[in-house]
Write a structure and sequence with these properties.
Blueprint: H1 3-33, E1 40-42, E2 47-49, H2 52-62, H3 64-84, E3 98-99, E4 102-103, H4 106-119, H5 122-134, H6 141-174, H7 182-212, H8 215-221
Antiparallel strand pairs: 1-2, 3-4
Keywords: Membrane, Transmembrane, Transmembrane helix
Transmembrane segments: 19-38, 44-62, 69-93, 105-130, 142-165, 185-208
Protein name: ECF transporter S component
């Protein structure tokens, strides 16, 4: 077997392994998304979620490109969920749902996908920035906590602020809030929903990351 054949086979195996890793994380996201009251937890005015957590872990283990793909899978599950199982505010996540005179549009697609894709990108860079600043070899606990917080808050802050940008009046009407007070309402959701989500993401990312990010474990997993 010549050197070129060996290199090509190694490249092919690496691509196959990468696809398998993506498939495993994607399967976890889909299972969470379609298990009632686990992946998406209905709160009436919105849905709480823990689906960002495998996207964050995937970002840290597989890198930002694959993390972005996983974020896209998360966005797709949200798009489908809000289309076939809508709440009163689902029009902000899908153009295929109307609430009276209010309907979604291109802004719905942006809200549904862009923040979720960035969940798979931001934690990777936050983790490595914290690790570099701490000048610590091995797994950085502070980096894992920061990555978990950053991933969850990327989702919450972007989603809620994009809702305000694209659908301020419609969102206010759907929630029975005066248009002049809608941003205060949004800040309330961020505090009640987004902050606990971020704390949970930080804790779980720390617990899982301390094990999964170890060099020996990553080598056995082929990362």
């Amino acid at each position: 077997m010549n050197k070129t054949t060996t290199v090509n086979r190694g490249t092919s195996m690496a691509k196959t392994r990468g696809l398998v890793q993506l498939a495993i994380f994607s399967a976890i996201i889909v299972v969470l998304a379609y298990t009632p009251f686990i992946g998406y937890i209905p709160l009436g005015f919105t849905r709480a979620t823990i689906i960002h957590i495998p996207v964050i872990i995937g970002s840290l283990m597989l890198g930002p490109k694959k993390g972005a793909v996983l974020g896209g899978v998360f966005g797709l599950t949200s798009f489908i969920n809000n289309t076939i199982n809508p709440t009163v505010t689902s029009f902000v996540f899908t153009p295929f749902y109307n609430l009276g005179e209010y309907s979604g549009g291109i802004g719905s697609v942006i809200i549904c996908f862009l923040p979720r894709i960035l969940i798979g990108v931001v934690p990777f860079y936050v983790y490595h920035l914290i690790r570099k600043m701490s000048k610590k070899d091995g797994v950085s606990s502070a980096g894992l906590v920061a990555a978990g917080l950053a991933g969850a808050l990327t989702n919450t802050l972007l989603v809620m602020n994009l809702i305000f940008f694209f659908f301020r009046d419609a969102y206010a009407s759907a929630n029975g809030v005066a248009a002049s007070a809608v941003y205060k309402f949004i800040l309330g959701i961020i505090g009640i929903n987004g902050v606990p989500e971020a704390i949970v993401a930080a804790v779980i990312t720390l617990i899982l990351g301390k094990t999964l990010m170890r060099k020996g474990v990553q080598e056995r997993l082929g990362v």
